[in-house]
Amino acid sequence: MAMVSPPEQARVTTRKLYRSDYSAVGRILPSCPERLSAEDVAHYRDQGYLALEGLLTAEEVEDCKAALSDVIHGRTPADEHLYIQKEPYYKQGGKDERIDDPELEVRKVFYFVQIEPRLAKIASHPRLTSLLDQLIEPGHRMIQDMALIKPPYHGSEKPWHQDTAYFDWTPLGGIIGAWIALDPATVENGCMQVIPGTHREGPTPHFHLRDCQLGDERVQVDRAVVVPLKPGGVLLFSGLIHHGTPPNESGDRRRALQFHYAAANCRNMTFKEHAELFNEGGAYAGCRKLDPEAGIPKAVYTP
Ligand SMILES: O=C(O)CCC(=O)C(=O)O
């Protein structure tokens, strides 16, 4: 019997968890309309996502990439909130002679809108605001800003999850994410994959496995669609939809901005309230830090 090395085994497992071709592509509008049609809004409500090209112009995309680069290289002065997360491969001491720019070792950047006006401008872009108004009503506010870099060769997976498992906002249906491609996002470099309609199934238990995620054996990969986008395209997605991205082993980086918004009627909830929603057998099955005062144990995954 042929021996399979542990990293190769991990690769094989990960491949099984995602689509690796274009046989099921999500619905993507070819341009950004001023007003969404009734069919587009119904698609968001029913399928849990709406994707469209052309939210940003080529110039805006270039501005964002330059701004992100300035933040990562420290040319934009940081504040106490900025957080830059390295790819685990490099954090664990990995070296790759093909990589000569520290920017290509970064996985995520959090909390930059306070220090980078070029990126803050995108979070409240009139075209984006108008789409959000139409999907979750006016009065929404931004609750998180992030850049997801997925660098070449060693860009790590973001396992399947629901974003509301991480947030403390209720009602869950009032949370929407806007994932904006800055590079061509392809199946090969790890574009978003979503499972349409899963937002209607409500909160689903999450476990701390490779990340805080859905149990691999419970993910309905056969229902997944890939959402490739050109630079400037956006995926708007419900905070309840199951989504994830595979590792990027290609030579192309895949930068994206991701903003989350809460509808006007959303409020913060306690850990106990969150535990009532993300629960398995009386144990906490969400991604927030355990509150010892709540006396609720953490759920353990059994496939
Ligand atoms: O861009 C990615 O790779 C995944 C983003 C995502 O799903 C998240 O950070 O919640």
The level of helicity is 10-25%
- Name the CATH homologous superfamily: q2cbj1_9rhob like domain
Distance between the termini: 27 Å
CATH topology: Jelly Rolls
Shape: globular
Q: Tell me the β content.
A: 15-25%
CATH architecture: Sandwich
Query: What's the total helix number?
Result: 7
Question: Structural class, judged by helices and strands?
Answer: alpha+beta
Q: What's the mean pLDDT score?
A: 96
Q: Main beta sheet: strand number and arrangement?
A: 8 strands, mixed
Q: Regions with pLDDT < 50 over 5+ consecutive residues? A: none
Q: What is the CATH class name?
A: Mainly Beta
Task: Tally the beta strands.
Answer: 18
Number of domains as seen in the coordinates: 1
Q: Order of SSEs, N→C?
A: HEHEHEHEHHEEEEEEEEEEEEHEE
Strand ordering within the main sheet:
1-2-13-8-15-5-4-3
Evaluate the radius of gyration: 19 Å
**Bound small molecules, deduplicated:** 2-oxoglutaric acid
SSE blueprint and pairings:
Blueprint: H1 6-17, E1 28-29, H2 38-47, E2 49-52, H3 58-72, E3 83-86, H4 88-91, E4 106-110, H5 117-123, H6 126-136, E5 141-148, E6 158-161, E7 169-170, E8 175-181, E9 192-195, E10 207-208, E11 212-213, E12 225-227, E13 234-238, E14 242-245, E15 256-262, E16 267-268, H7 271-277, E17 279-280, E18 283-284
Parallel strand pairs: 1-2
Antiparallel strand pairs: 2-13, 3-4, 4-5, 5-15, 6-14, 7-16, 8-13, 8-15, 9-12, 9-14, 10-11, 17-18
